[in-house]
Design brief:
about 525 residues
């Protein structure tokens, strides 16, 4: 055990405080709008803090640190690209302003506004599938951080994961998005302080320091540790894909829920460009920690997911270690409650509720409380809470059995699973918001075709030999599969819509009074 009782006391005080805050937040919930989007009342500073916190979850720190340990400084370009895209989106309002103007609570609700209830149902199913798979490694990676940081034996990974999930689920059920916003402020402060102090300690540590870290990367990784384009894990295909998906990836429900929770579209734009500036630090600092772990252990064969937390637990002094652990637990809570709310909300509002509405034969019309004729606001909150519990149970099982079967790094796994959804969004949302000819047929094709290659990549790596020979070139490498799927998703909308303009006239959208 690396930590003292003072460090554990800091963590316990934080956990107790957040649970109390979640309990208090429950009294502020009056309907589904409060539960999922905080009553659409977030100011700029609140929305920025909560969005940055969601983007800097413990799993983010873990998978970026793994990239730094395995690839040195080469992946640093990821943070730069993410920042540039975030600022462009924030300044132009691309996608964000129009979705906020339409006053939807979940992204698939847009599908019913623009296309049909059937498209919304399909989009909700695909988003829920992609989101749940994407989140599958969050709990187990968070547990591996705690175990590595504290020096607990590895057999404690699964019990610690379950205990952490129980705390998060309880907190999420209490206050919904209100609880998330409260937690995110605490996380924002704790992580900012602990990251600054930890960076200073690494740079001044006698076994580390900038020159020792650079030497270790050069010794173990060579040119591939510095050049993104020369590194076989990245290259030009990955860079082009990452920039492209950055513009459409803003519709990822856990992050989009923040701008959708703001007072208006002007604030929604501001949230994106301010949080976009922070993307460099959110990516580069954990990667730097990972590269430092390579220098600290001087062993490229060390477990890449455990190296960074194990190093941190050994070099941080008493008090600072507790601050870091509390901040990381805050990051764990922030990301998990945000994602659990996002995916449970999508399943209830965009799958269960539309099915019930279809069976009841109700018309497509949103009521004053934000429901769409399927379930009442109270029933939506009830079923959202039920799905939160079921998702947490799935995550525990998935993490235990899949962590050793990943075909690539955790970072690559996140983007493969995310692209199952992103690829369809190129046509359904990107073109749907800006191309007047986009219609229902094109939406069905975009959603159906877009996610095929990423799914094929995941299945091929679990069941070798399943993939037909003509697809092997595309799905044997995640970078090629992801980029190709974005192109196919866009083509699905273009071809499907152009061929069916008369039989399925496009449904117009009115943005004339948008701020």
């Amino acid at each position: 055990m690396h930590l003292s009782w003072i460090d554990y006391a800091i963590v316990l005080v934080y956990v107790g405080g957040t649970i109390l805050a979640g309990t208090v937040a429950r009294g502020a919930i009056k309907g589904i709008s409060d539960f999922l989007v905080a009553g659409r009342a977030l100011k700029t500073h609140t929305a920025v803090a909560t969005m940055v916190s969601t983007g800097l979850g413990l799993v983010t720190v873990m998978y970026f640190a793994e990239e730094g340990f395995k690839n040195g400084f080469a992946p640093f370009l990821i943070g730069v690209m993410a920042a540039i895209v975030g600022v462009i989106v924030g300044k132009t309002g691309f996608i964000v302003s129009r979705l906020r103007h339409l006053k939807v609570m979940t992204v698939p609700e847009f599908y019913e506004v623009k296309y049909s209830r059937g498209v919304r149902l399909l989009g909700g199913i695909i988003l829920a599938l992609a989101g749940t798979l994407n989140m599958g490694l969050f709990p187990i990676l968070g547990s591996k951080f705690v175990v590595g940081f504290t020096g607990l034996p590895q057999e404690y990974v699964n019990p610690v994961m379950i205990a952490m999930l129980v705390v998060v689920v309880f907190y999420t059920l209490m206050g919904g998005m209100m609880s998330v916003v409260l937690t995110d402020f605490a996380q924002f402060i704790l992580l900012s302080l602990s990251f600054l102090v930890s960076t200073y300690i690494i740079l001044t540590h006698d076994r580390l320091g900038w020159s020792n870290i650079v030497d270790a990367v050069e010794r173990h990784k060579g040119a591939a540790g510095f050049d993104t384009f020369a590194n076989p894990d990245f290259g030009w295909i990955f860079v082009f894909y990452f920039i492209s998906v950055g513009f459409i990836g803003i519709v990822w429900q856990p992050e989009m829920s923040r701008p959708l929770s703001t007072e208006n579209s002007r604030i929604a734009r501001r949230v994106f460009w301010i949080s976009g500036i922070t993307a460099v630090g959110r990516a580069v600092i954990p990667m730097f920690f990972g590269a430092a772990a390579l220098a600290f252990f001087n062993d490229p064969g060390y477990d890449s997911q455990s190296a960074m937390p194990a190093m941190m637990g050994q070099i941080l002094p008493v008090g600072i270690a507790g601050l870091m652990l509390a901040g990381m637990f805050a990051a764990f809570m922030s990301t998990h409650d945000s994602y659990l709310l996002a995916w449970s909300g999508v399943i209830v509002r965009d799958v269960i509720s539309p099915i019930k509405a279809m069976l009841a034969g109700s018309e497509q019309k949103a009521s004053e409380d934000g429901t769409w004729g399927g379930l009442s606001s109270e029933r939506e909150i009830y079923w959202t809470r039920v799905i939160v519990v079921l998702l947490a149970a799935f995550l525990a099982v998935f993490g235990i059995y899949y962590i050793d079967k990943m075909p690539e790094t955790a970072f690559k796994f996140m983007y493969v699973t995310g692209t199952i959804y992103f690829a369809g969004c190129v046509g359904t949302i990107g073109l749907g918001l800006y191309w007047k000819k986009s219609n229902t047929v094109g939406a069905y094709l975009a959603l159906s075709l877009g996610g095929f290659l990423p799914l094929a990549f995941l299945i091929m790596n679990l069941v070798p030999g399943w993939t037909p020979g003509f697809l092997e070139y595309l799905v044997e490498n995640s970078n090629r599969a992801n980029l190709a799927s974005l192109i196919i998703g866009g083509l699905g909308m273009l071809v499907g819509s152009l061929l069916t303009q008369k039989s399925h006239p496009p449904r117009p959208l009115d943005f004339s009074d948008m701020e």
